[in-house]
């Protein structure tokens, strides 16, 4: 028997449209929560939520309930006034901005406060309505999986009814720092209600940490490594980064209909690079900023105006909320201005669509675009970025997720140091040249609980890889490819490229690392007893390579530029092997253990020698270091 799961979210995966007194059509709802949960398989799931419209009459409610039942969905019917206060008001005007570090409504404090109280009442009422529907469908042994901030009281209402219900609550948005969260008048009640869950999940460790510190700081509860404890009762708090069903996208690309879309779009935009934006028209997605940045690009690069197009799919969302209405007008105004300014009789630089598009057209757009541009000011996860990558297996376009560091002289390391790049250079790889990757495909098909054994079985006797088990992950890495080795490698590259003759006497390594990567904190410390660390010479670590090139764990299997072969980098672009050969170097880099300063941020259980409490403290330390540097000049970039 499959485990029964009752999924509960404000919005059902099916949005209904009325086609007659008792006739309905159902479409997939837009938004990442629904996309993510479409990947939930191998369980007996029922989904409880709102079907996206008001249904005042009994005939309509009964017939819609029947239509939804065929899809495993159970509707909660909400009237217009309640929905307005609960969804448009409390959820989307109060909570949503707060999760994303935007301020609460300030316009008219008296009205706002009055509205706030009735909106909060409506919020609790709706949570109770969800609980009542759930009680009708609950069977002993069911797992109840509640989604998102619309339903923070639901865990409490369920546990008040039956303490034995198994309840998990997952938050799809960022959970902000307490400095922001404390602005919310009902902050304590909401925390207490959520803590009635058995387990609480967030996308990232930082969001989980913010939640725990709100509970400890505001409710005076105890934070433990597992979660939050209240009088002996533990609520587990865990980071579960959400994913999506990538096969759904890859398989769609094989459909004739999608191929037809791809061919039409390729012809339509022939000779132009396509930059794609796909967002709900939401205040957090940075859509005006994206369009203004594109305008700046056109201003600064007039040669590009007829060679590039920004294709923005702006899915209408929360259209009754004033902030969203303002955003829509603002975006239209900017798009109109830019198209008027840079358009020609035959082409405009921005194609802006205020509509959702069907799944097949979306897959085709992902597949043909040269660039996907994500500019969210803050976001819970952002599945659009995953989906773009899933559809780019052959084209290998560019996903822009953040400001890529072009103004700085620094190194980037990806995939644990397998790929390295100076900001003004090419990706290079430390990957051994003849690594056997045949096992990868078979391992991908294994059920998660068997993966570790299968991986071990496949890799038995292979000494060129390390298998590292995390709490919910199994990583197979090229032997010796670790974050610590990446640092060492980068230092070698710097010494080599700058022809340095004086030893580096100060390396500061600051970060917040998962347990399995903690080795980075002590990698260059001779006292560190890790197996994956290369053996240092007694007392100091000479990086001239003589003691590591024959080591099984050596990361330094790099080859001269002349022998460079092309590999695939994290962005999918071709990559050369590193051009520095450790064997060539003399002892120019002689880093003593005491010159390597490792520092953890926030996490007390660490191998690091030093602790800073927050990223603000990191910034202060870096500023102090910078100002103490001879020749330092302050600038706006500070
Ligand atoms: O239901 P709506 O009000 O129309 O909004 C759509 C969804 O928006 C939010 O999605 C979040 O969930 C995604 C998946 O975890 C995540 O990638 C994204 O960053 C979030 O913004 C909201 O949290 C959902 O409840 C809404 O259904
Ligand atoms: O016309 C569209 C365009 C996009 N999406 C989907 O909307 C989701 C957006 O999710 P994301 O996590 O990026 O952000 P959210 O909208 O949930 O904040 C993605 O799965 C898209 O495939 C959609 O349903 N219809």
TrEMBL record:
Residue ranges that the Swiss-Prot or TrEMBL entry lists as coiled coil: none
Enzyme class at the top of the EC tree: transferase
Entry's Gene Ontology cellular component terms: cytosol
E.C. designation(s): 2.4.1.15
Chain ranges passing through the membrane: none
Region named Disordered: 533-580
Keyword terms: Glycosyltransferase, Transferase
Classification via InterPro entries: Glyco_trans_20 (IPR001830), HAD-like_sf (IPR036412), Trehalose_PPase (IPR003337)
An MF annotation (GO) of this entry: trehalose-phosphatase activity
Pfam name, any one: Trehalose_PPase
Ranges of Polar residues composition bias in the record: 566-580
Gene Ontology biological process terms, A to Z: trehalose biosynthetic process
Family label: In the N-terminal section; belongs to the glycosyltransferase 20 family. In the C-terminal section; belongs to the trehalose phosphatase family.
Protein's recorded name: alpha,alpha-trehalose-phosphate synthase (UDP-forming)
Organism of origin: Eleusine coracana subsp. coracana
